[in-house]
Write a structure and sequence with these properties.
The structure holds two protein chains of two kinds. Chain A is of the alpha+beta class. Chain A contains four helices and eight strands, in the order βαβαβββαβαββ. In chain A, strands 1, 2, 3, 4, 5, 6, 7 and 8 form an eight-stranded mixed sheet that branches. In chain A, α3 links the parallel β5 (73-79) and β6. Chain A starts with a strand and ends in a 5-residue tail after the last strand. Chain B has one domain (18-200): Aminopeptidase (3-Layer(aba) Sandwich). In chain B, α3 (122-135) runs antiparallel to α5. The chains are: A alpha+beta, B alpha+beta. At the A-B interface, β7 and β8 of A face β7 and β8 of B.
């Protein structure tokens, strides 16, 4: 697997995989219809870095670093859920190069419990920071937890 | 919709009786719709050095003439907290990042720095939470607080707050990083009666006309 840039006009492939691939909170549809305007915003607004993961000639993930409040950086992920276990080295490369380039002291990623397996994708780099119980409604009596993770520099783990 | 029409009888509206609802006026604090006349005072409070890290304004200086637009963009529901003895703004409460499907919303809060330790401005927060839960029907309210801010509340909200997350060394405050607590208040733990007693809005049950009373006519 390897990382390549997402060209400015090269986001059309994302639409069909939204709702099918495993998303972090940023890419979770949460009942919304993702319009072209929303998609454009998701790949441009406050995006500090982003890369596409390629494997076997095809795309298997989009990884992002996004400016959040108070100078923090959120990691955005939209990934083929069946390939997460193979992505460890390229995710590590993406995160470490981001720390080096952006100069931030930590990042964070959040995910609904049943949408993205953060532990598999980030390994020990992601440290659990909490669980927001019953955060997202799925059905009248079914609410899903939101999991919080801090993502640390190599030396801070 | 159809139903019984209240006329004479035990459930009919009687002049002078109190209709149940969510009060926006407490003993020392009143919530008022954010108005242009509040902007200068609120801008001063929000940009004070000791309160800037409590609020999303951190790192994003907003000129006074753009402040009203900034507030409107930031939150769909917000009130100025006015002190009742002189009508001056002492802070701002906001509902941010609302999710109507899951019925949850974030709480934004700015308080005049000199009044933080006095405790009484938190009455405005109690009024606002009652408004969010009972008035607007939200199920869960979240807030993020650095440790130093949480300590300043003096435990006044501990009865209702549940810590669901802790981001270590997360927010830059001065020259250092502080832990940030992710706190929630769930409607199931919120005691409307107690909140109304705290804010002086409790009413004697026999003086209240409720929907049930109006529907008892049949």
């Amino acid at each position: 697997m390897r990382l390549v840039d997402l060209p400015p006009d090269g986001a059309d492939w994302i639409t069909p995989v939204i709702g099918a691939w495993a998303p972090s909170w940023r890419w979770s549809t949460r009942g919304r219809t993702i319009s072209p305007d929303i998609l454009r915003a998701l790949v441009t607004d406050k995006v500090l870095r982003q890369s596409v993961v390629l494997a076997d000639g095809g795309r298997v993930a989009l990884l992002q670093m996004v400016e959040s409040h108070s100078g923090l950086v959120e990691l955005g992920v939209l990934a083929d859920g069946g390939r997460l276990a193979e992505m460890g080295p390229v995710v590590e490369e993406f995160v470490e190069s981001g720390f080096a380039e952006l100069g931030v002291h930590k990042m964070f990623v959040t995910s609904l419990r049943d949408e993205l397996d953060v532990d598999t994708l980030f390994g020990p780099r992601a440290r659990p920071a909490g669980c927001l119980v019953g955060h997202e409604r799925r059905d009248e009596d079914l609410y899903v937890d939101l999991l919080l993770y801090d993502v640390l520099r190599e030396g801070d783990r | 919709m159809s139903g019984p029409t209240p006329t004479a009888g035990p459930g009919a509206r009687t002049p002078g009786r109190v209709v149940a609802g969510v009060g926006l006026r407490g003993r020392r604090v009143e919530l008022a719709r954010v108005a242009p006349s509040h902007y200068a005072a609120l801008h001063g409070i929000a940009t004070a050095e000791s309160s800037a890290h409590l609020w999303p304004l951190l790192g994003r200086p907003v000129p006074l003439d753009e402040f009203g637009s900034y507030l409107a963009q930031l939150a769909p529901v917000q009130f100025t907290m006015l002190r009742r003895d002189n009508g001056e703004p002492v802070g701002l409460v906001q509902g941010i990042d609302e999710d109507l499907r899951s019925r949850r919303i974030g709480l934004g809060l700015v308080v005049e720095p000199a009044l933080w330790s006095s405790g009484w401005p938190l009455e405005g927060v109690v009024l606002f939470l009652e408004y969010l839960f009972s008035g607007l029907g939200f199920r869960k309210v979240y807030c993020h607080m650095p440790t130093s801010v949480l300590e300043r509340t003096g435990g006044g909200m501990d009865l209702y707050l549940t810590e669901e997350g802790l981001h270590r060394q997360h927010a830059r405050v001065g020259d250092a990083y502080e832990d940030v607590h992710v706190l929630s208040i769930h409607r199931d733990r919120w005691d409307s009666e107690m909140s109304r007693r705290i804010t002086g809005n409790a009413v004697i049950r026999s003086d209240v006309v409720t929907g049930d009373d109006l529907g008892d006519e049949g």
